[in-house]
Amino acid sequence: MKIDDAAARLEALGNPTRLKIYRTLVRAGHAGLPVGRLQERLKIPASTLSHHIKSLLAVGLISQVREGTTLLCHAEFDTMRGLVDFLVAECCTEDAQCQGARTAA
Q: Which CATH class is domain 3-104?
């Protein structure tokens, strides 16, 4: 993962509302959640939710699929894993005392 991509994704998650949306979708698993249910759970106005969803879509953290009249949001788990892997890839590489953490990462 390029550092600019990681920075954009971390910036998107740096907003408390977007982080709540993302965590809710992660908890929902691969089934995802309809936008309406996401709005009900988080008690966010539709326009605000739409704004934050666009930000998460733009950096690839979530995706949307239309099923009939329902718009489903899904967490992109491969993107999430890639971001986490990017963050831990060089864990303790310059610390000789941290060999165990490096192999665990």
A: mainly alpha
